[in-house]
Amino acid sequence: MEPVNPMLIFKQMDEIKDEIKSKQPLVGSIENLINISQEYKETNPIFEKRIIELSKEFPKVQRMRADGNCFYRGFFYALFLFLIQSNDKDSLTYFQKKFAFFRTKLEKRYGEFIMEMFCDSIDDVLLSIEQKTLDEEKLLDLFNEQMTSESIVAYARFLTSTYISENQSTFSFYVPMGMTVSEYCKQNIEPMEQEADHPEIFSLSSALLDESTGLAIQKIDGKVNENYQTLIFPNQDSNPKFNLLYRPGHYDILFK
After folding, report:
1. How far is residue 248's CA from residue 134's CA, in Å, rounded to a whole number?
2. What's the topology of domain 6-255?
3. Which residue numbers delimit the OTU domain (predicted)?
4. Cα(94)–Cα(31) distance, rounded to whole angstroms?
5. What is the mean pLDDT of residues 111-119?
6. Residues 190-202: pLDDT tens digits?
């Protein structure tokens, strides 16, 4: 047997990424959740059944590109969409203060010059929401602009990393043995295309959300005895204002 050529593997991975980029928008249009169930009809009847069941409560879905950034992109898209649709001034003020607070922290941690573009991308969206110049259609266009979308994802990653670093006693449990929290953040959170797992979700939700504005994740996996599982962040007492669908390795936005 010939030895595996690692360069060939990397080339194949790059080709897969290029194919995903060519076929999937960063954020898709809202569609019927039942469409996703059809993708599992031949290969995974358990997933098909669970998605059909979930569609009774959440009939619509908005897909994120499967590029490893889907959780962060979906989180911020859903958050901004909530602020647009709710027209809730108190919620908008709350998040404006939150982001202003973290801007100071991020600029201190990474440098003002480095963080300026990322923080400005968030502030620009919030200002547009406040001035009512950003609607659902324009938000979709905005998140499909490569530079803006990636700036928001990068911001989310830096914020998540900062929150975990400042709360090491809470998150050290999730860090693999032999790795420091700082190393974990630099390798698993800050780089683009690194998938988010429970500690990243908990961190970002704890940093930005509260009991009045929570996140619910409807989780579908391969466990035989479960239908779908609802996880609420930052804690179980939070009132979810937006929902994400989790399938192994991927997140999309759900709508009732």
Report:
1. 32
2. 3 helical TM bundles of succinate and fumarate reductases (1.20.1300)
3. 59-256
4. 31
5. 94
6. 999 999 999 999 9
For the question of residue 123 being annotated catalytic, the response is no
For 224-244, the pLDDT digits (tens) are: 556 788 999 999 899 999 999
Q: Active site residue: 67, 119, 185, 252, which one?
A: 67
Q: What integer is the mean pLDDT of 165-187?
A: 93
Angle, in degrees to the nearest 10, between helices 146-166 and 112-130 = 110
Q: Is 245 in a helix, a strand, or coil?
A: strand
Q: What is the SS3 assignment for 109? A: helix
Phi, psi of 241 (to 5 degrees): -105, -15
- CB distance 119 to 103 below 8 Å: yes
Which of 14, 18, 70, 185 is catalytic? The answer is 70
pLDDT in tens, 160-173: 999 999 999 999 88
pTM of the model: 0.91
Q: Is 252 a catalytic residue?
A: no
Closest by Cα among 75, 82, 220 to 155: 75
120 annotated active-site: no
| DSSP single-letter state for residue 224 | T
